[in-house]
Amino acid sequence: MEATDLPVPPAAPGSAAPAAEPGRGPAAERTRRSGYRRLPVQQRREQLIAVALSLFSTRPPDEVSLDDVAAASGASRPLVYRYFAGGKQQLYEAALRSAAEELTSRFLVPQRGTPTEQLAAVLDGYFSFVAEHDAGYGALLRGGSVVETARTSAIVDEVRRTALRRTLRYMGVREAGPRLTLLVRSWISVVEAASLSWLDEGRQIPPAELRDWLVDEFVAMTATSAAHDPQSAEVLAGLLALEAPGGRAARLLERLGGLRVTAEEV
Amino acid sequence: MEATDLPVPPAAPGSAAPAAEPGRGPAAERTRRSGYRRLPVQQRREQLIAVALSLFSTRPPDEVSLDDVAAASGASRPLVYRYFAGGKQQLYEAALRSAAEELTSRFLVPQRGTPTEQLAAVLDGYFSFVAEHDAGYGALLRGGSVVETARTSAIVDEVRRTALRRTLRYMGVREAGPRLTLLVRSWISVVEAASLSWLDEGRQIPPAELRDWLVDEFVAMTATSAAHDPQSAEVLAGLLALEAPGGRAARLLERLGGLRVTAEEV
């Protein structure tokens, strides 16, 4: 007996998903007659989330209705409600959670390369996510969506906390003091602000340039923090020790050192 | 006849404020007997907003009730509702708008001083606001408050847009390209992230150190952008031309230039 043929218990309000997609009874008969496709439970659930995510990614969440999700999924509205008894809010949170998992899965630092090369690879993954999820990424980070709640904020906060943990691990830090935490959180906010600005300004900047800019800003910001904080100085020394001579970091620092205030040039 | 003695029309739902505080009728009688103070209309409105702002600043908005606002104002709950018929949400928005106006009023750049000194002065004003409004600042920027809506987000967005405009004016820029916009929005996000991190980490860093760190990061980030964007390079040159030799900016750039990747030291 397949999952699709299981009898369906009444969906409890707020339950994550029904035991199975309706396969019997008058509702199922209507569904069959109207030509909706039947799918196994888990597959249907994942499909609905994927469709919702794609809709939330191209339009602000307030402009996406459950009818849109149903239509784009080839499912009926009652079926969507059967899986997400909490309605649009629950579906939005599930989609957000799925997006958050996908985004954090791209934070993995490759084994090879200098620190700036590794960072560039992580940023490439990040921007491919931003480019794919456009409006959804904006709505997510900008907040203020009609469906923004303490729960959706917790999901976004968890992404930021994961980004903080991963960045500190990348830096080789076990326990960060307040100044290093300040630096890393600030840099993460630069990545977010840059992504939003990039989307808002119509993607005029090529992603590879944006990535290189962010890598450079990471080096510059960390190097600046090093003057204020011994822990940041230690992290910087550790990273620079692994950089290639004449590479990105070296060229940037040399260029910054070559800048002079006018009075010194006179 | 004083404003307090005017007859009170029934408050329309969503109206900004009643024509006058109740001075007659049984309700006024109860109010008088229970010892609440009577205030002229505009003064009462401002007082309620100020009290609400102070409560929202020390506790997350979800934990502040209209009863708290009434008690702290020496007003009755019905009176608070008379001024803010939309209830807590309307009062919260009014408090937020008032806070936003206060914050943006501190963005004014002093006439005297080098660019880094001017920036330091603006940041001092900003941090005094953050220190005063603590939880309210956090709830505001972090979003996810139960009372976060498209309207409250619009208020926060307007603060950011004002910060962007003022920073560009400070930089002497009339029309910013996408790369300079990227830089300035990123730097504003650093100010916000640093403020939140500072609050979250229990204000361990002295405000003056935080301010100097942000000024240095502004110089470093702008100098880094200069390598990627002619407009940023032009802005940087304009600012550095006004800096003192041996001043903050000069010392920072020299220190950054003195950093070497290990392989170059060998």
Could you explain how this protein is built, in words?
2 copies of one chain form a homodimer. Chain A has 266 residues and is mainly α. Chain A is built from 12 helices and no strands. The relative contact order of chain A is 0.08. Chains A and B meet through helix 7, helix 8, helix 9, helix 11 and helix 12 of A and helix 7, helix 8, helix 9, helix 11 and helix 12 of B.
Question: What Rg of chain A is obtained from the alpha carbons, in whole angstroms?
Answer: 24 Å
Per the principal axes of the C-alpha atoms, what is the gross shape of chain A? Answer: elongated
Distance between the termini of chain A: 87 Å
Given helix and strand content, the structural type of chain A is mainly alpha
Task: Say what oligomer this is.
Answer: homodimer
Residue ranges of chain A: pLDDT <50 for 5 or more in a row?
1-17
Strand content of chain A: under 5%
Largest interface: A-B, 72 and 71 residues
The residue-averaged pLDDT of chain A reads: 82
Number of E-type strands of chain A: 0
Helix content range of chain A: 55-70%
Largest sheet of chain A: none
User: Helix and strand succession of chain A?
Assistant: HHHHHHHHHHHH
How many separate helices of chain A? 12
